[in-house]
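Before we proceed, please read the two lines closing this message. Let me know whether the structure tokens fit the sequence:

…
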Amino acid sequence: MQKTKKSPDFVIVVAILLLLTIGVMMVYSASASMAFHKYGDSFYFAKRQLLFAALGVFFMFLVTNVDGKKLYDMAKPAVIICFILLVIVLIPGVGIWRNGARSWLGIGAFSIQPSEFTKLAMIFFLAKLFSKPTFQIRRFRKGLLPAMGILGGAFGLIMCQPDLGTGTVLVGTGILLIFVAGAKMQHLGGFALLGALGFTGLVLEATYRIKRITSFFDPWSDPQGTGYQLIQSLYAIGPGRLLGLGFGMSRQKHLYLPEPHTDFIFSILSEELGFLGITIVITLFGVLIWRGYRTAIRSHDLFNCLVATGITSMLMIQVVINIGVVSGTFPVTGITLPFLSYGGSSLTLTLVAVGILLNLSRNANR
């Protein structure tokens, strides 16, 4: 008799839908003033966010029913295609330049960010590699070194754009996967030291990165320059207190805080909904991360376990970095807040990743 598939994790579905609802509302509130000023339509960004959210939810439930064998088989072709796209996007006249980085491919209003797809493709590729019975992750030359080489190659291409934020999420997710797969701690320690030296070199290589670090320690040393974003973000968070100023009542969104509907949407949420609002959002993210790792622990094979671990870790790293940046805990970098920040390809791809997580939850042991 054919085995009946279990339902996907209902708790994850509820958490995602609540986060999406809050996200669409906050995108409208955070962008209304800027959208009216630029396009004469206060709902300009909100309508697009709602469209991409609906499209993402459709694909999320679609991939929930995909055969797990197909996910395994697509790992290698997906990462090869992503490497090709990462090269193509660097070609002048082909890649689209936005916010100081050549990270986009597209025509007209429609565009994609290959580095976003690379994060998910790399999770599948590393999970497939580590789950092979013949692969020896505890051996350096024949195990860990090739995996780090592939991860480092993707990171290098992303840094050529340059996009340190996405590269950091990619490497952080990859390192967590390598750790879970069973690599030796002394090997990881050596790569951690090399990574720290490399990160220092990347910071010293670009003047704007040095300024970001110095403004992180003292943003008021350059309040009209590199410290401006952080100062305006803190001005938004501060007045929120317990219950906030009220939905739609933010002052910083009126062309004071740059990117209020993307990277710094958490600041506007803090200002309007206060401590209560951010507690609800962080709790929802916490529930999502808990259920994601729960799915990984209960998965019936190593590939499923590693994919669930990678997707959950990717979301967790993005949430931690984004909230850390807007609150002044980390230096400013371009990381969006999953499900809340405005962005078409990023939101859709993140929902597809959650759909895969839901797919794996159907096969996890109870």
User: Anything to note?
Assistant: DSSP finds 13 helices and three strands in the chain.
